Amino acid sequence: MPSSPVSRRNLLGAAAAAPLLAAPLIGAAPAAAAPAHRQSRVPLDRISVQLYTLRDQLGIDLAASLAELRAIGYTRVEHAGFVGRTAAQFRAALDAAGLKATSGHVAIPQPWDATAWQRALDDANIVGNHFIVHPFFGIDSATGQPIRDGAKYHALARDLNRAGALARRAGLDFGYHNHQLEFVRQDGGSRTGYDILTAETDPDLVHLEVDLFWAWRGTADPVDLIQRHRGRIRQVHVKDMDTAAAFADPGGGLIDFGRIFEHAKEAGLVEYIVERDDAGTPPRTPAAALTTARNGYRYLADLRF
Fold it and tell me: What pLDDT, on a 0 to 100 scale, did the predictor assign at position 37?
């Protein structure tokens, strides 16, 4: 092996100088500390639960189920009907449990009927809603397959604007909730049903309630949706997806909710709604829906992003 050109004397000299090189200069300003990552969290008072998750359990015992939601920590819910009660009776049950139905899923009349929609708005105000949301569209009633005729989305957009205008007059904020169906391309082109709806509805009259599970199932990245619809996504459904692309409790699946919620301000997001569509359906028991509600609340309360 050839000898090294570095002598023992040079090595000793370098070793002696090392502490001096490592030490800060006298009087020098201390090095700036690396900035800490600013952690955000979901505001606890913005966490809600979609009562469709508990539809079977509510039918068994409405009062006890609502009381359990309040004990978990929820202060707000989103209803999907009144569980066989009138609007006034349902409001009384919510009040007794210490809950507020800030939002409700109510389908707009098809074909359009302004008088029928006004009755729905009256009920929404009795219940105490702030938001009222159209819950479902996208299946061709004749074939049972996803709609691929863009004309039907154009027509729906007109009706959504009508519904939003009346809702605004009634003091309510009207929204549209997606499934995966809206992301099917229309008329053999590249434009999806969601593209048509979001382009042809007035953002001042129709906000977006993005179902994060169904967006992923429709191959739409929610972060992309936020960037395309800044300030318009007021609500989200927090529903997780397992490895088989089926439902899972929030935090128990594959969806990176923190990555999405980092853009909450950009989205305009004010309500995070826990949901699981199969939470009370066999083979799951109705009471399993309360477990989902508990897991969802705990996950959102503990999440940092």
Answer: 60
Q: Which residues contact 111 (CB under 8 A, 6 or more apart)?
A: none
pTM of the model: 0.88
Whether the bond into 111 is cis, omega within 30 of 0: yes
Q: Distance between CA 290 and CA 298 in Å, rounded?
A: 12
Pairing of strands 100-105, 131-134: parallel
Output DSSP code: residue 147. -
Using alpha carbons, list the distances in angstroms from residue 103 to 30, 76, 288: 53, 8, 23
Measured distance CA(36)–CA(57) in Å, rounded? 44
Q: Which of 250, 232, 207 minimizes the C-alpha distance to 47?
A: 250
Rounded Cα–Cα distance for residues 28 and 128 (Å):
62
**Collapsed DSSP state (helix, strand, coil) of residue 210:** strand
